[in-house]
Design goal:
The complex is a heterodimer of chains A (289) and B (732).
Chain A lengths: L1 E5 L9 H12 L5 E4 L10 H9 L6 E8 L5 H14 L4 E6 L4 H7 L6 H18 L13 E5 L3 H10 L2 E3 L5 H17 L7 E8 L4 H14 L6 H7 L5 H13 L4 E6 L4 H13 L7
Parallel strand pairs in A: 1-2, 1-8, 2-3, 3-4, 4-5, 5-6, 6-7, 7-8
Helix pairs in contact in A: 2-3, 3-5, 6-7, 8-9
Chain B lengths: L1 E5 L3 H13 L4 E5 L11 E5 H10 L1 H10 L1 E3 L2 E5 L2 E5 L4 E5 H15 L2 E3 L15 E4 L6 H5 L1 H4 L1 E15 L6 E8 L2 E9 L5 E7 L1 H6 L7 H11 L1 H4 L4 E2 L6 E8 L3 E2 L2 E3 L14 H18 L3 H31 L9 H9 L7 H7 L1 H20 L21 E3 L2 E3 L3 E3 L7 E2 L2 E2 L1 H11 L5 E8 L16 H17 L3 E7 L26 E2 L13 E2 L2 H21 L3 E6 L4 H6 L14 H4 L1 H13 L6 E6 L10 H13 L4 E5 L17 H11 L2 E8 L2 H9 L5 E4 L4 H6 L5
Parallel strand pairs in B: 1-2, 1-9, 2-8, 5-11, 9-17, 20-23, 20-31, 23-24, 24-27, 25-26, 27-28, 28-29, 29-30, 30-31
Antiparallel strand pairs in B: 3-7, 4-7, 5-6, 10-13, 10-14, 10-15, 11-12, 12-13, 16-17, 18-19, 21-22
The chains are: A alpha/beta (289), B alpha/beta (732).
Chain lengths: 289, 732
């Protein structure tokens, strides 16, 4: 399993300069990827613009969306944006898509919320065709374009994954929740007669430092997930706040069959990145820059 | 804080005393409709884990409960005049009356205001409170009052049951299965106070009606059950306590609290009595609620915390309870199983206990299960040859390593591997990389290796890289594979014959499923002219000539498979390929003799089967893969699959390979570990056929459990080492 780090692009108040510095330093190691999240109605940066920006200052790490809300995007435009990111970054893009969990994002963009699942399926199918046929350019690094991942918890998500994509991206939670999702993904993959294995990506949140840092982390998660009601508290409770917690989390995901983990910050401070890097290096993970 | 608790059952009393203990200053009132000493029900059951949580929550009541309870570790199963026992299940039980006494006394001691014989019909009758805890049972007036907030759903079970006692001492949890002229009755019974035992008698509705129990009063019901169980009861008599026949109400509730009102126990969830008692869940709710109130000053936060803590736990429990309930509702299916297998099946019904668990709990029972399976395997193979052989195995391997004999083909164990490849062939001719995979699978220790779908004609291929057996050269390539496996291993080799139908002419599945070729598409046909996906080619409806030619190609392929030396022939009637398109009503809209009802939709598949059976040596087995369900509303369902399996068996099919879905792209199977098992179970035990099943089985424990319980006979495994195995260099 490889471990990457999320960009602080959805933490309110994170400056552009911080995101660029964060990306540069992450690219020096030991991280394997830089992840971004997607919210429309929130004080956050656009995930694809963010990746486009950091593509220019990095040369090694994968650039992953875990996830973007697919149905909010026009298929041809998204195909072009993603192909551009892929080409400009030298094939480092991994495009994770899902329906998302917030109706208000759909309302704000005037997209019908009810047929979001159907729209996502059509989008997954059409992205691949658009890249293969090289409709509007640019030419993607590999024939057929970047790897596509799909997220979501419904049975339908796994059917979608196996029909259209290269793997699954899990939304978060303790390793045992991921293990159940991984079983579903493997079962669907094998059932459909697809050779090999699906790529499995997952994510978690960390806040490393003193009490103040921890509190800021909790505050951010409660705010970011306020739309989930009761559940925000549970998500906040999963925040990784010690080297021990991070190490065990990584071990749990590795044992459950995860291929690539993205650890997202909850405090917009590069010191967070350094502390996480130290833990990964102590665990013998990743490679030095 | 002023708290009112509605309901003086275990949930209400226990939550009251725990909250009061933590906060002596709180003003707590418990309101109970009945008098203090009036109670219904007999004994309630707790596991050792539950008891440990009682000890942490309140040691005083824990000590009193353990002073009064009965503890045992054996489950006895009476079935077909035999008793099978399995030990190591630590369970304890206490009379409901003693439990209530202990809890009531502790409440008094802590200064809780207990008001008995106080019926509340309207919540307006209650005085002001800061928190209302509704522990008022299944018919909770509080839940009903705020129904739109709590969003409950109630579903009644199909079986009828009555909750009785008996003045009989039992030394084990006892299941009794009893068939009489009215039908099948099962009894769940356990001791609880040293002199009396609980007897729950359950039957399906038909038996209940036939026995006239719908019209029976309390005394008549008691007399009927007394007579039914006279062999088991001996001198003892059954006792009633206002007992009635009811259907089990399965209650689930979406939200557990609303403003300053919170629900717990039976008021919010029920779980079928066959896997433990609602009392356990209710008292665990009470512990969680009191600890949440202790941890959080803010009431809303505390109630959220309680709900978030308990709801997932209760849901997992309810899922297992639902499995167990549906097991008892479909029990008839298992009445042909031998007593040891029946018992193993019963004990593993909810999916929470496996073969390894039972072996850990009772090695003697584990060995008995192993011996039974081994002897069954021997008798199954010897009846074909010399019925004179009468062996009794004493030392037996686990079920996964027992043999299975299909006609004259002897599989050394129950494991099947099915290698997959991006590129199995060129022009139907299997390539070396793929044949190496098959050979490696043969050397893995599996009992049988099956090829991927092998096309019976060039047109029947799924992709241009699909393997075929429609040319003499293909036969030679397959022959080398089969000979390699036969000469180096004990494994048998099966060939899967298929015509892709409307799922043909697609690209390799490296980047997804059912993607039409960029160029070089070949024309497709199917039962009806419906494309597999909106972007796939529209197939033409098959003509009689097409039908004849496909049948002839299946026969030719069968002859070639024989020539290549394959041991087992497997026909694919599933997953949306050509023959599946005839079977599912969603994809067969034909107006001729090949469309219409199931009998007609099966006509072409059976025609193929008969022709293939006639061309395949009589001493070699044929397996057929069927989709047990379309997993789409209005589609083919598992009851239809049972009928199809029966038809195939009558026509000479030896084993059914069970899959689901894929018949259309709208299929949405609930994927997960072992997701095909319930389908295999139903088909095997209702159609009385052997079955082969996959569904992401990765451990020997899963396979042992499936085989020993009689849910399948062969298992297609997906161990994590497969990829390395397939790409290892073949030893020669």
């Amino acid at each position: 399993m490889q471990v990457g780090v999320g960009l602080p692009s959805t933490i309110p108040g994170a400056q552009g300069q911080l995101i660029i510095e964060w990306a540069c330093r992450a690219d020096e190691g030991p991280f394997s990827n830089l992840g971004v999240l997607d919210r429309l109605v929130y004080d956050s940066y656009d995930p694809l613009i963010t990746l486009g920006t950091v593509a220019g200052v990095t040369h090694r790490v994968k650039l992953a969306t875990t996830i973007i809300i697919g149905p909010l995007h026009n298929n041809s435009l998204l195909a072009k944006t993603a192909a551009s990111l892929d080409a400009l970054s030298g094939g480092r893009l991994v495009l994770g898509l899902a329906v998302g969990a917030r109706k208000e994002d759909y309302d704000a963009s005037g997209v019908d919320y009810r047929d979001r699942g159907k729209r996502l399926s059509e989008q997954l199918s059409s992205l691949r065709s658009l890249w293969e046929e090289n409709h509007s350019g640019p030419k993607t690094t590999r024939h057929g374009g970047p790897d596509i991942l799909v997220g979501g918890l419904s049975d339908q998500s796994y059917a979608r994954m196996v029909r259209y994509t290269d793997g699954y991206v899990h939304g978060g939670g303790p390793p045992r929740a991921f293990a159940r999702a991984a079983d579903k993904a493997f079962a669907a993959w094998s059932d459909a007669g697809r050779p090999g294995k699906p790529q499995l990506w997952a994510q978690g949140y960390f806040a490393l430092g003193d009490d103040g840092v921890m509190k800021a982390g909790y505050r951010y998660l409660r705010d970011y997930y306020a739309f989930t009601g009761l559940f925000a508290e549970r998500i906040a409770a999963g925040l990784l706040t010690s080297p021990q917690a991070v190490a065990q989390f990584i071990r749990g995901y590795q044992d459950a069959g995860c291929d690539e983990l993205v650890l997202f910050p909850t405090v917009p401070d590069v010191a967070q990145l350094d502390r996480l890097a130290e833990i990964l290096q102590a665990q013998g993970m990743g490679r030095a820059g | 804080m002023k708290i009112v608790i509605l309901g003086g059952g275990p949930a209400g009393l226990y939550s009251g005393l725990l909250i009061k203990k933590a906060n002596p200053a709180y003003d707590i009132t418990i309101i109970e409709r009945n008098a203090a000493d009036v109670t219904y029900g007999w004994g309630v059951v707790f596991s050792d884990r539950t008891l440990a949580s009682f000890q942490r929550a309140d040691n005083k009541t824990y000590e009193q409960i353990t002073d009064h309870f009965v503890i045992w570790d054996t489950i006895d199963v009476y079935y077909r005049n035999q008793k099978i026992s399995c030990g190591g299940h630590v369970i304890s039980s206490i009379s409901r009356k003693s439990l209530l006494n202990i809890l009531q006394n502790r409440c008094f001691e802590l200064g809780i205001n207990l008001r008995f014989s106080c019926e509340i019909n309207d919540l307006a009758e209650l005085e002001d409170y800061d928190l209302l805890i509704a522990a008022d049972g299944l018919n909770s007036i509080v839940r009903k009052k705020y129904e739109s907030s709590f969003k409950p759903s109630l579903e009644y079970g199909k079986a009828r049951y009555i909750w009785l006692g008996a003045n009989k001492v039992l030394d084990a949890f006892t299941f009794i299965f009893h068939e009489n002229e009215h039908g099948l009755f099962q009894v769940h019974s356990y001791p609880f106070n040293g002199t009396t035992s609980t007897f729950i008698i359950e039957c399906d509705e038909a038996s209940w009606l036939k026995a006239g129990l719908d019209k029976a009063d309390e005394a008549q019901s008691l007399a009927y059950c007394q007579q039914l169980l006279e062999d088991n009861l001996g001198e003892a008599t059954l006792l009633s306590n206002n007992s009635k026949w009811i259907s089990f109400p399965m209650l689930k509730t979406q939200h557990w609290h609303h403003k300053n009102v919170v629900l717990l126990g039976d008021a919010i969830h029920t779980a079928h009595f066959s896997i433990g008692s609602g009392t356990k869940l209710a008292m665990e709710d009470a512990i969680a609620l009191s600890s949440a109130l202790e941890q959080h000053v803010d009431l809303e936060t505390a109630l959220n915390e309680y709900e978030l803590e308990r709801k997932p736990v209760v849901e997992i429990f309810q899922k297992a309870a639902r499995e167990s309930q549906s097991y008892f509702e479909t029990l008839k299916r298992y009445m042909t199983l031998d007593p040891i297998q029946f018992t193993f099946n019963l004990l593993t019904r909810s999916g929470r206990i496996t073969y390894d668990d039972l072996r850990l709990r009772d090695r003697r029972f584990g060995d008995m299960v192993n011996r039974w399976n081994a002897n069954k395997a021997i008798s199954q193979s010897s009846t074909r040859y010399s019925s004179a052989v009468q062996t009794q195995t004493i030392f037996a391997p686990p079920p996964i390593f027992t043999t299975l004999t299909l006609r004259s083909v002897h599989l050394p164990n129950r494991i099947v591997l099915s290698p997959r490849s991006n590129c199995a062939a060129q022009n139907g001719m299997p390539v070396e990389a793929y044949t190496n995979q098959i050979q490696n699978a043969g050397s893995s220790g599996a009992g049988m290796v099956e090829t991927e779908q092998v096309a019976i004609s060039a047109q029947g291929r799924i992709t241009p890289e699909s393997a075929g057996i429609y040319h003499a050269d293909h036969v030679e390539a397959w022959k080398r594979v089969v000979e390699f496996i036969h000469s180096h291993t004990q494994a048998k080799v099966a060939i899967q014959l298929n015509h892709a139908g409307r799922r043909g002419s697609t690209r390799s599945r490296t980047k997804g499923l059912d993607r039409s070729l960029h160029e070089g598409n070949w024309s497709l046909f199917s039962a009806s002219s419906i494309p597999y996906t909106p972007s796939n080619q529209v197939p033409r409806e098959m003509s009689r000539d097409d039908i004849d030619s496909v049948r002839d190609n299946f026969v030719l392929a069968t002859q070639r498979a024989h020539e290549a030396g394959f041991d087992v022939l497997q026909l694919n009637f599933a997953q949306g390929y050509l023959l599946a398109s005839f079977i599912s009503p969603l994809t067969n809209h034909r107006k001729d003799e090949f469309g219409g009802d199931l009998k007609h939709r099966m006509r072409f598949p059976l025609e193929i089967f008969d022709a293939v059976r006639a061309a395949w040596p009589p001493d070699r087995p044929i397996s057929v893969t069927i989709s047990a369900s379309d997993c789409v509303k209005g589609g083919f369902e598992v009851d239809n699959a049972v009928t199809v399996a029966q038809m195939l068996k009558e026509h000479g099919c030896d084993i059914i390979a069970v899959v689901i879905g894929q018949t259309t792209i709208d299929s949405q199977p609930a994927y997960g570990r072992g997701f095909l098992t319930p389908f295999s179970d139903q088909i095997r035990n209702e159609a009385y056929v052997l079955t082969m099943v996959g569904g992401y089985l990765t451990t020997s424990d899963e396979v042992n459990t499936l085989i020993a319980a009689g849910r399948a006979d062969l298992c297609i495994m997906d161990p994590p080492q497969l990829n390395e195995l397939y790409w290892a260099t073949t030893a020669t």
